Amino acid sequence: MNHSDLLAKAPSLTAGMAAADHSPDSQLSQTRHRAALVASWHIAPGSTVLELGCGQGDMTAVLAEAVGPKGRVVAVDVAAPSYGEPVTLGESAARLAAGPLGPRIDFRFGTDVLDPSVDFPDSTFDHVVLAHCSWYFASLGQLRDTLARVRPWARRLWFTEWDLTPASDDQLAHLLAVLIQGQTEAAGSQGQGNVRTPFSREGLLRLLPESGWTADGSEPVDTEELQDGDWEIAACLDLVSEGRLAALPEPVRQLVLSQVDVLRALAKPRGNRALPAYSVTAR
To answer: Is 188 helix (H, G, I), strand (E, B) or coil?
Structure first.
């Protein structure tokens, strides 16, 4: 399926997402973003795909469309089906499972691939995908171990994440919100947000050889339509209102509070431009 064909499917894929009932425009832009990514990866019909960190299935739906009726997507997430709001992972998965893509998808929530009981024969999958989920990991060591664990199971890795290097000044608010959340987590105050371990593209490229993968391509990814800048700024400001900073060592707390002051000065009420993203391929 080529780029234009998959993008043309974005509205119908969006309609199959439970989150579209609450924010159809946001869901459409998120789906279009993932459709463009998958189209650039040239995943052939009939392929088998292991998706790590599937969440509510934004990428899962696009992958299932790309692999076609003879393909298969095993969508794994360590979170429980009850996680998420206003739509839980389980509710979103149930909507997808009841639709035309359902037979192609095997959702496995509450599943950690580092658990020895989770195993697949070598080369079970043509592709393994991590899309905008790697900052959820508790540490770079955990990500490295996960990439090493899945290495024998799949022939090819497709990885995409936000880029910590802004392309313009209007992305600085998103960057600052990400770094504040990462500092708060690193100092021991753990939350339920999207950002626990932010790292750079260069950090990933250093990590891949340690986990048995060889990178063979890296491309910038357009994020112009995405709302994640607004979402992460809101999540960052919630840290203060939730009182999580009180658990931090005092020097760290003061540093974070000063950065929050800067974030408030930089951020707009809405329409903050998201950071760029990148895609890395490896084998």
So the answer is: coil
- E strands in the chain: 48-52, 72-77, 105-109, 125-131, 154-162, 215-221, 277-282
Give per-residue pLDDT as tens, 194-247.
Answer: 899 999 999 999 999 999 999 999 999 999 999 999 999 999 999 888 788 988
What's the half-sphere exposure (Cβ side, CA atoms, 13 Å) at 66? Answer: 27
Is 20:41 a contact under the CB 8 Å cutoff?
Answer: no
Q: Two tokens at 203?
A: 């950090």
Burial of 151 (0-12, 13-18, 19+ CB in 10 A): middle
pLDDT at res. 241: 82
Question: How far is it, in rounded angstroms, from Cα 58 to Cα 185?
Answer: 26
The residue to which tokens 């626990």 are assigned: 196
Residue 10, helix vs strand vs coil: helix
Residue 107 phi/psi, 5° resolution? -80, 135
From the CA atom positions of the chain, what is the Rg in Å? Answer: 18
Q: CA 138, CA 173: separation in Å to the nearest integer?
A: 23
The per-residue DSSP string of 41-84 comes to HTPPTT-EEEEES-TTSHHHHHHHHHH-TT-EEEEEESS-TT--
Longest alpha-carbon distance in the chain? 57
Give first-to-last CA distance, the chain, whole Å. 22
pTM (predicted TM-score)? 0.94
- Strand 154-162 relative to strand 215-221: parallel, antiparallel, unpaired? unpaired
Do the Cβ atoms of 220 and 276 come closer than 8 Å? Answer: yes
Phi, psi of 164 (to 5 degrees): -75, -10
Neighbouring CB atoms inside 10 A of 191's CB total: 15
